[in-house]
Amino acid sequence: MNSKIIVVSVVAILIIAGISVFVWSDNKEENGGWYAWDPTIGEVDYTKISTTPQIIDQLETMYEVVYGTLPSTDGVTIPDGKELQYNSLVTKVSGGIEVKSNYTNSSGFLDTKTIYFTDSEISKMKIISYGYGITDSYVDLLGATVWDTVVAAGNTTWDDYPDNEMINWSDGGSSGSLGSEYNLSELNLLSYLEKAGAKDNGNTYCLVVWGYIQNYDDVVKMLFDNGYTNVEVLRVDYYAITSFEYLLSVQDLLGQIVGIDSLDNGVISNFQLRYYVIEEALESDTDVKKVYLERADKKSPGSETLSQLCFDTLKLTNINITKGTTMLSDEVIVSEQPDYIFFVKGDTRSMDQRMRVTV
Amino acid sequence: MSELDSFEALKVIRRKTFRKYLIVTIVALFLLVMAFFIALKTGPVYISFDKLINLLFGNGNQTDVYIIQQIRLPRILCCAIVGAALSIAGLAMQGLFRNPMASPSILGVSSGAAFGAALAMGFGIGSIFGSYSVTLMAFIFCFGTTFLVYFLARTSGGVSMTMLLLSGIAVGAFFNGLVSAIQYLVDSSTLPGIVYWLMGSFASCGWDSFKLALIPIVIGIVIIGFCANELNIISLGEDQAGTLGVNVKKVRVLLLIGTSLAVAGSVAISGIIGFVGLIIPHIFRMIVGPNHKILIPLSIIGGAAFMIIMDAIARWIIMPDELPIGILTALLGAPFFIYVMRTKKKYRMGGE
Amino acid sequence: MDLRIKGVSFAYRSIDVLNDVSFEASSGEIIGILGKNGCGKTTLMKCIEANLKPHTGCITLDEKDVSSIPRRDLAKDMAIVAQSANLFFPFTVFETVMMGRYPNSEWFQNPTDEDMKYVYSAMQATGITDFAERSVSELSGGEKQRVLISRALVQDPKVLLLDEPTLHLDINHQFGLMELVKKLVKEQRILIVIVTHDIALAARYCDRILLIEKGVIVGSGIASEVITVDNLKKVFDIQTEISYDERIKGLNVFVIGKS
Is pTM, for the whole model, over 0.90? Predict the structure, then answer.
C-alpha cells in the first residue's frame, strides 16, 4: 500500500467533502435566522433596569414595543387603594423617626442598628451617598435616586454642597472595607466634613452606604472619636430590592430622612402614577405573549431578576425560566419562538448577528 | 529479542506496526462517529434518536429540522475542524521545539488573536468587514503575530528555537496586557461580550463560521501533514536533521505558517480554547509512539472527536445553560497534564 | 571523492577559533583530526558538514563548495555521526535508522526493498539487529552511538564524519567499530574523517592526521610524521614513548606521564 496514494486520496476526499458542504449549505433556503417566526424586536437600556426608580423608563419602553403608545398620565388620579403599596421602613415616633440599618459588625455577624433622627435634625439633613463595592455607573444611578429625592424636598441645591459637587462617591467596586484610613475613594470623609464645616454649620449628615460595609462599627467610632456627633451612618440593602414595592420603600426611607413625608414624595408618586396607568391598561389582557431579552454577552435574565419584574407587569412570559441571568441555548429560543425579543443598548453586534442570520 | 535473519524480518516488523496503527485508527474513527451522534442528540430541546437521521436530511418537524440542520450540525462540524486544527498545531509545535510540553499558543498567537477580537468588539475597529469584523480581526492578528514573533527572533545567526520561544512569550505577554487594557477601558455593556469571547465557545458557530474556518484550517493541516517525515527527523535534533538532508529552515517556515493558519482559523470562530493542542498529541504519542506519519491522522481524528465530546458536555452539564468550552478544557486538561507530567518519565525534558 | 579544506578561518565574536586551516583528503583514507578539547576541531567539523560557514576560505567536495550544495544532495554523499545522543523521543531503532534513507528517497514514499536492505546490512554491521524494535531513548550511550552509526551508513555516503566515536563505547565495541571503519574504507573506498582527542586511537588507525592546537595546524601528514614525541609534548603536555607495533600494524603510543 503506497502511502502516497493514501495521502492523495484522503486529501481528495476532504476537498470533495468540503466543496459539497459548501454547495449543500448554499442551496438551502435563505437562512432567515430568528426572523423566521416574525418576532417584534425592541431595544432597552439594560443598565437602567436597576434598583432605582429609573427602571420605570425601561418598563415604559418595553410597553411601547409590545402595546404601542403609552397610556397618558395627564389628569389621571389613582383611585384609593389602587396605587402600588409599599411597607414603610420608617417608624414614626414622638419627635422624630426611627430607622433600621442592617450591617455586618466587626465579628462578621449580621446586626441591626436602630437609628433615631429628631425632627430638627431632619430639617437640616444632608445626605452623602456612597456606593461601595459597586461600579461607578451604578453608583451614579443610585446617587441620582438620592438627588432626585433631596431636590424634591427643596431643602438643598447645588450650592449647599461644598465645591458644587454632588455628594456621590464610589470606590469603583474594588475593596471590601472602608480602608484603614477611612478613605472613601479619593475623598477622605473626615476632610470633606471639615471642609464643609460640619461641626459648626448646624447640619446633620447621613452617610447612606449602598452596599456591604464590613467595618461599620469602626466607621461609627471614627466619626465619634473625631467629634462628629452629627453624622449618622446608614446602610441600605440596594440588592434586596427585588420588587417594585421595596423600591418604593427605600425611596420613602430616603425621603423621610430629609423630611419628606411619604405622601409628599414626588419620586414615589410619579412612579406610582406611571405604574398605575400601565397596570390599568393591561388589566383585562389575558393573551400569552412570549418574551426573550438578550444582553451583549448573550446572557438572558430569567426568573427572580429585575427584568422579570418588568415582564410580569407587562404580562409577558419569559422563555428563560432559570433563576438569575444565564445564557440560553439557541435551540430553546428557536423552539419557543418568543413573540417579542429585546436587545440591549451598547451591543456591538449587528442586527443580523443578533438575529442569528449571520455569524 | 530474536535475531533477525534478513531484511525480510524487517518487513515483518513494518507490517506488524502498520497493523497496530490500523487498529488504533479504526477505533479512533469509531469514537469519532459515536461522538458525532452523541453530540447531535445532546441539547436542551429533546429530539429522540430515531428521528435524528431523518432530521439530518430535512424530514420532520420544521423547528426540529432547523435545530438539527442549522444549529447542531454546523456546530459539531466546527468543533471537529477546530479540534483537529488545534491538535495538529500542537503536534507541530511539539515537534518543532522538540518539547512535548509545547502547545499551539506557545508563540503568543492566541494572545494576538484575542487582541484583534477585543479591538473589534470594544472599538469597532475592522468594521469594514461588516458582521465578520470580530472573526476576521482575530484571524488577521493571529496570523500576523506569527510573523511578528518570527521577525523579532531573527538575529544575524538566523532564527534559533530559543529566540523564537522567548519572542513568543514576550509578544504573548504584551498582547495579554493590551487585552486587559481594553477590558478596563470599554463600556460596562460591552465588557461581558469580550470576556465571554475570551473564554472560548462554539455557541455562535453556524454554517457561516464553518465555511469561514474550513479553508485556513484545512490548508494549515495539509501543510503540516506534508511535513510528517521531516518532523520525525527534526525531533531527533536540528543540526542532525540538516546533515540528513532536511532543509530545516524551509520546514520551520512551513510549520509556522501551517500552525498559524490552523490556529487563526480556530480562534476566529471559537475564541481561545486551551489544552487541546497539548493533550491530544500526548495521548496518541503514548499509544502509538512518536512517528508523525501516524500521529498526524490520529490527532486529526482524535482532536475532532475530543472537541465534539467536550462541546456536548459543555452543553449538557448545566442544561439548559451552557458552560464556555474553554473553561471545561482547562478544568479537565490541567489535571490530566499534571498526571502525564508526573507519570510518564520518558516525556520529561532531558530524557533519562 | 576529494575533500579539500582551503584556508578556513572562523571566529566567534572576536575570538579566533580556526585560523587558516588547509588540508586535503580523498577516498579510501582514514583521516584523523586530533587535538585537545577546545582546539577548534568541532568547529572545523561543523564547517565540513556545512552547519557553519567559514569566514574565510572554503571547503569543497569534488570541487563544489559544501555550503552551496543543497542539503539533500550533500546528505547523499556525506554522513555525520554526531557525538551526543539527542535520541530522546521514543522512536524504534528501526525507525531511526530508516531516517537515514531520507536523502535518497522520494517524498512521502514508502520504504522500498532496497531501503530495507540498506537498513538491515547497516544494522548488521554495527551489531544492533537485535534492537530493531526497541525504543532508542531506552538504550545505553554506546548502543545509541551504534544506532547513529547505522543511520549514517544507511545514507550510503562517500564521506563519513565521526565525532568522538569511541567516547561512549565499551572497549570491545571500540575495536568492533574501528574494524568496521577499516572494512568500509577497504571495501567501499569511503573517506572517513574522525574527530577525536583520543591519541591512541588516532595513532593506531588513521592514515593521515591533522593536528590542531588553538585553531592552528601544528602538524599534518602521515601518522608517523605527526605523532611524534615532540608534537605530543607540545600539544598535549605529556611525555610519551612511540613505537611501531607489528602486531597491530600501526603506531603504539605509551603515555609515560605529564611532561
Answer: no
Q: Is there a single domain that holds both residue A178 and residue A63?
A: no
A329 with B322: Cβ contact below 8 A: yes
C224 part of contact set with chain B, CB < 8 Å:
no
- How many Å apart are CA B55 and CA C85, to the nearest integer? 58
State whether A11 and B222 contact (CB < 8 Å): yes
Q: Is residue B185 part of a domain?
A: yes
Q: Do C108 and A1 touch (CB under 8 A)?
A: no
In terms of domains, do A95 and A118 share one? yes
Quote the domain boundaries for residue A53.
33-70+284-354
Chain A contact for B83 (CB, 8 A cutoff): no
Q: Which of A257, B189, B241 is nearest to C151 (CA)?
A: B241
Domain count, chain C: 1
CATH number at residue C47: 3.40.50.300
Nearest CA in chain B to A25: B207
C209 pairs with which residues across the strands?
Answer: C32, C221
Residue A237 and residue A109 in one domain = yes
Structural domain contains residue A155: yes
The x, y and z cell numbers of residue C50, run together, are 556545512
Return the residue in B22, B67, B191, B207 with the most chain A beta carbons within 10 A, the one to mutate for interface testing.
B207
Q: Is residue B36 part of a domain?
A: yes
Residue that is written with C-alpha cell 569543497 in the block: C60
Please indicate, yes or no, whether residues A23 and A39 belong to a single structural domain of this protein. no
Domain containing B153 equals 17-347
Contacts of A3 in chain C (CB under 8 A): 108-110
Helices (H), strands (E): how many in chain A? 11, 15
CA distance A301 to chain C (A): 53
Contact B240, C82 (CB under 8 A): yes
Does the beta carbon of A25 lie under 8 angstroms from any beta carbon of chain B? yes
Q: Which amino acid is at B110?
A: S
The count of domains in chain B is 1
Structural domains of chain A, count: 3
pLDDT per residue rounded down to tens, chain A (359 residues): 566 677 777 778 877 877 777 776 665 555 678 998 999 999 999 988 888 888 999 999 999 999 999 998 888 888 888 888 888 888 888 888 998 877 766 676 777 788 898 888 887 777 777 766 666 667 667 767 776 666 655 545 545 554 434 455 544 443 333 333 333 433 466 766 777 677 887 788 888 877 766 667 777 787 888 888 888 888 887 777 888 998 888 888 888 887 778 887 878 888 999 999 999 999 998 899 999 999 988 889 999 899 999 999 999 999 999 888 988 888 899 989 999 999 999 888 888 889 988 76
Report the run of H or E that residue B269 belongs to, with start and end: helix B248-270
- Residue B121: enclosing H or E segment and its boundaries? helix B109-123
Instruction: Clarify whether residues A235 and A301 are in a common domain.
Output: no
User: Whole domain around residue C152: which residue ranges?
Assistant: 2-258
DSSP reduced 3-state for C190: coil
**B80: CATH:** 1.10.3470.10
Is residue B8 in a domain? no
